[in-house]
Structures are given as structure tokens and as C-alpha cells.
Amino acid sequence: MVQLKNKLPCILAAITLVLTAAEAASASVRGVAPEKYELYKASSDGTWTCLDGSKIISHNAINDDYCDCVDGSDEPGTSACPNGLFYCANVGHIPSTIKSYAVNDGVCDEACCDGSDENGGLITCPNRCKAVGEAYRRDQSSLQQSTLAGLAAKEKLIEEAENQVTLWEEQQIKLEDEIILKKSNMLRLQRELKVLEAARTTKKKTKCQSNVLEIDTLKHDITILLKELESLKSILGDMKRDHNHNFHDMAVKSAIAGYDDFMNRYEGIKESINDDVANINVQEPEEQEEEEEEEPTIEEETIDSKEEGKHSFAMTIVEKLESILPDVLKKSLLDKLVPIVKNDNKKAIPHSGISNEADVENARKLYEAADSEVDQLTAELQKIKDDLAIDYGTQREWLKLKDVCVEKDEGEYTYSLCFLGDAYQKSNKDSTRTFLGKFSNFDDGNYKTHTHSQGTRCWNGPERSVKATIECGVNNEIIEVSEPEKCEYHFRMLSPAVCQRIQESTEKTTNNKPIHEEL
Ligand code: MAN
């Protein structure tokens, strides 16, 4: 009795061990992943329910090589159900799931490197998982390295694209400003040419009209400058009112003194300028009736002196302004006014009022040169706008690769493709080149499939076209070219532009495509 009492703990431990082993054995079901063992436990009455709930069967009917459940869940380890799934553990590599109809079919399934899919005696499959696992890890590591290098190259492409876009945007603004200036200069030259042409062919009356035009321009300029003077006057007035009176800044005090002095004389001078501007109408030359002559006549001399009169009229106003303006205003205002007055007298109006052929020719050349410069700048601007409007990918990763070309010798032909550009097929026999199409669109949201279309039409067939599928690589290259349909080419390519961070995969699944490859 005592003996039995002493042995009791050992007996209990043994019983526990036996029970645990039995439980584990019943829990593991052939063809089922460990995380699903729980679903394959028997009910207390020894039955089991199909995973889709369609039927209750005896627990012993699992893997009995007879398909009971609609979803095939009762036969994970046999090929009895057409739609079941078989799990192979592939220890040393990555677990995998294949269609269960490939179980015991006499073929060692590539996806089950442990050979567990074949236990029916038809064939013995060796466990290759150690070697397969090692090769896979080597591949993964080199893939990871090339992906990292590709990602670094892609970062560079993105950075360069950003710089390029900034440059284009700056150039665009500069060109837009330049075109406005050049256009106004071109229009001025055009006006001058018209004036000269008119003066060459019409009566002096016309010349007088053109003088009136010029006078109008001057009057307009003076009005604008007077407005500007008003605004500067108001700025100085504000400064006088709002400046800190306790802070004795000599520059401010002297500006205010100049402003006060200016204001004392301003109203009187302004009135006199307005009178002058109004009076200019009275001074305009009367219409002349004489025909144009080679040599200047007395009348023309008169008109010349009236030109001088206009010059002195404009200069008088400038001098008046100069005499009343405080120093702070003088520079900004007179710097603008003086060149206008001088230019309009010197350039816009021919001194004699009569233009000769050489003057007209010269003016035409100047106008045509200015016109073609505007055209050239406008074309440059349009090119930049077009370049900016192109879709270069989510991070503009394709911008710097646009028109970068790669080629591949495939024996009979050498194929070439320029990214976002043209693709060609060149015969290696006679070097004749066939156009395969120009870039038309990205086929997917990832910018990894490029379509080139509208190539040379195939005899009795469609226009040639290319579908390029691009994988991540450090360099840009064509890996292989095929022609799955007549005149429809498929380019497999590499480029850093499509590289993405690797998503770790833990399980290889071939649910939809069982791989049957004889060893
Ligand atoms: C050429 C090549 C081929 C193509 C045939 C169609 O030989 O462009 O790729 O299939 O024309 O006639």
C-alpha cells in the first residue's frame, strides 16, 4: 500500500503525458495550418461541422478521402475535394498552400518543398526545403540590395526633377515678363514703322497727324507721372503726420522740410503745368496742303521748329517739376520722365518729319527683329509650359528619364525604347528601322506599364504598338522583348523609377495556380 502511495505521482504524470500526446495527435490534421487546428476539433459527441456550416459529419470522416463538405474543408489532406486547400509546412523555407487536388497526384509540387503533398506511395518527394530556403534567402537579400540601390537612384531622380521644375517655373516667370517688355517694344517699333511709312507716302498733313499722336502720347505720360507725384505726395504727407516726433532723425526732418517747401509751391506749379498741357493743343501745327517733296520746304522747316517747340514744351514741364520737387522725389520721378521725353523727341519722330527709304527700311528691320524675338521667346515659353504639363509620375520620377533611350539586341532585331518617347525595331541584317510607336500613356496607377502606340502599320494588320512593363532595377534596361500578337510587342524592362520599399511576405501562396513541376 505504501509502495503504491509512493508511486502515485509517477503514474499520474505518465497518464498526463499520454493524454497530452493524444490531444496533440488529434489536434494536428494533415493539410491544415497550425493556426487552424482549433477549427478541426471534434465536438463532445464526436462530430464535426464543415467550415462553411453546410453539414455535420463524424469527426472520423475528416481526410477519409471522401468529399462531404461543399467547401471541401473536410478533405484538406487528400485530393477528394476539387476545391480544398492543402497546407505544407515547408520547415526551413516558407509555408505554402496549394489546391488539394494536387495532393497525391504523383507530381512533387514545387510549392511544397518538404514533399508533404505526396504521401500516397505513387512517388517519393525529397525534402528540398533547406536548399530552397537558402537559395530563396540569398535571392531575397540580393533583391533587397538591388532594390535599395534602385530606391537611392529613384530618390536622385525625384530630387533632380524637383530642381528642374523649379528652374522651369523660374524661367516661365522670367520669359512672361520679358515677353511683355519685348512685345511693348515691338509694338512701339511697329508704330514707328507705320508712322515712317505713312510719312513717306502721304501728304505732310499726315505727318502733322502723326505729330499730334506723339503729342498725345507725351500728354498721357505727363498725366501718369502727375498721378504718381500725387501718390508720392500722399506718402510723404502720411510720413509727416505719423512719424515719431520725439525721435529726432535728421533724414526724416530734412525730408519733411523739403516736403513743406515743395507743398508751398506745388499748387501754383501744378496749375502752370496743367495750363501748358492744355495749351499744347493751340500750338499744334495747322494742316498743310502741299505734296511731299524731296527737300524740306519752308513749311517743313516750320514744322521742324514746331517739333523743337514740342520738345521744349515737354522739357519745360520736366524743368518745372525738377524745380519744385523735393530731393526724395526728384530721382524716382525724373529718372522716368526724362528718358521718355528725350526718346520720344529723338526716336519716335523723324527730325525732318519726312522719312526716306533708308529710314523706313531700318525701322522695318528693327520691327521685324523685335517681332521674331517675341515669336522665339513665345515658343520657348510654350515649350516650358508643355514640359510642365506632362504627367511624370506621382513624384515626377519619370521626368529626368524622358527621352532617355535603351536598346536590346534580340538576334534578328535590335529593339530600342526612349522613355516617354519613341520605340523602334531595327533589323540586324540590313539596319532598316521600323517605328513601333510613340509614348501614349501609363497603363496603371503605379506608372509601371507604358504604352507606345501609332507605330508603322503592320501589313494586313494593326498599327504597331508596345506595352512595356517595368520592374525595379538599378539601371534602365530592356530585359527581353516578345511579340505575343503580330505587331504587338511586349518589352520587359528595368528602371529605378518604379522601385518601391519591399513588403515583407511571410507565406507563399499558390491558391489560384498550383505549380506542377517535375523534379
Ligand atoms: C516585320 C517585323 C515583325 C512583324 C512583321 C509583320 O517583319 O516588324 O516583327 O511581325 O513585320 O509583317
UniProtKB/TrEMBL annotation:
InterPro entries: Gtb1-like, Man6P_isomerase_rcpt-bd_dom_sf, MRH_dom, PRKCSH, PRKCSH_N
Keyword annotations from UniProtKB, A to Z: Coiled coil, Disulfide bond, Endoplasmic reticulum, Signal
Name under which the protein is recorded: Glucosidase 2 subunit beta
Chain segments annotated as coiled-coil in the UniProt record: 151-178, 360-387
First and last residue of the signal peptide: 1-24
An annotated GO cellular component: glucosidase II complex
Positions of region (Disordered): 284-304
Annotated ranges, domain MRH: 403-501
Ranges of biased composition (kind: Acidic residues): 284-302
GO biological process: N-glycan processing
